[in-house]
Specification:
268 residues, alpha/beta, Rossmann fold, 8 strands, binds D-malate
Length: 268
């Protein structure tokens, strides 16, 4: 682990392995440890950079509203501070996907390939955005325990709590330990995120899309449409997994990721 100062904040970052850089962007309201099952396997041939994003884990918390564009700027500043100037493979889950879209818009030359996991390209409806703002106001008063209770069933395949209790408790721990001010600021930022529909056909880099078979937040149907709109893309449904596919079925998830990254090496 290392702490990097960038963009006026301090970021806690897992920096492991050697080879082409892969940046792993966690989902909401989680932290970099959601990639725990990917780190050992992927670090054999790649340099993995997995930050706690602004407001999460052990990184600086910013109050108010943190937009996806701010998180994209944070990533660019982190890469610069680490001296990484070669284009990276950007891999984001859910909120991480929203950040990846914002990064692609602002820094297209810094992306060599893209991995979108369990994410959406559409913005929030008015109702969804209002619900986020209400949740943001509530979480700073009530804390994150209640958020964990409400979110856990939506994040996981219904069988995960029984079949893989360690995954359910890890997700619950991440949410419960999240700073309510960071959770609130990110909710407000996600509520005003841009529609990525116009970006999808313009994505030039190779793209892998992965989604849990039972993802209730960004279902396979919705993700298959995102894949269809991206020219050079591959779409994979991860069986026996919900929204947290990298944690719920790491064997299949990692096999797809490794095959994608290895085929990239062969093309160099
Ligand atoms: C996530 O997993 O990052 C969240 O489901 C994103 C969201 O709330 O839209």
């Amino acid at each position: 682990m290392r702490q990097i100062n960038a963009a006026g904040a301090s970021f806690n970052i897992e920096d492991r392995g050697a080879g082409p850089t892969v940046v792993l962007i966690h989902g909401f309201p989680l932290d970099h440890t959601m990639w725990q099952y990917q780190l050992p396997a992927l670090a054999m041939n790649n340099r993995l950079i997995a930050p706690d994003m602004r407001g999460f884990g052990r990184s600086t918390v910013t109050e108010g509203t943190v937009r996806m564009e701010q998180m994209a700027d944070d990533l660019a500043a982190i890469l610069e501070a680490m001296g990484i100037d070669q284009p990276v493979c950007l891999c984001g889950l859910s909120m991480g996907g929203y950040v990846a879209f914002a990064f692609l818009r602002k820094y297209p030359a810094r992306v060599r390939s893209l991995i979108l996991c369990d994410t959406r390209s559409a913005p929030d409806s008015k109702e969804a955005a209002d619900a986020r703002r209400q949740m943001a106001d509530k979480v700073v008063v009530e804390g994150t325990e209640k958020v964990a209770e409400a979110m856990l069933p939506k994040l996981l395949d219904p069988r995960t709590p029984q079949d893989r209790p360690q995954v359910a408790s890890a997700v619950q721990r991440m949410i419960s330990e999240a700073d309510p001010r960071g959770v609130a600021a990110t909710q407000r930022g996600m509520a005003i995120r841009s529609d990525a529909a116009d970006l999808l056909p313009k994505i030039k880099v190779r793209t892998l899309l992965l989604v849990g078979e039972h993802d209730a937040i960004s279902p396979p149907d919705e993700m298959s449409k995102i894949a269809a709109a991206i020219p050079n893309s591959k779409f994979v449904i991860v069986p026996d997994a919900g929204h947290m596919s990298p944690m719920e079925n790491p064997q299949r998830f990692n096999a797809e990721l490794l095959a994608f990254l290895e085929s990239e090496l062969l093309m160099r």
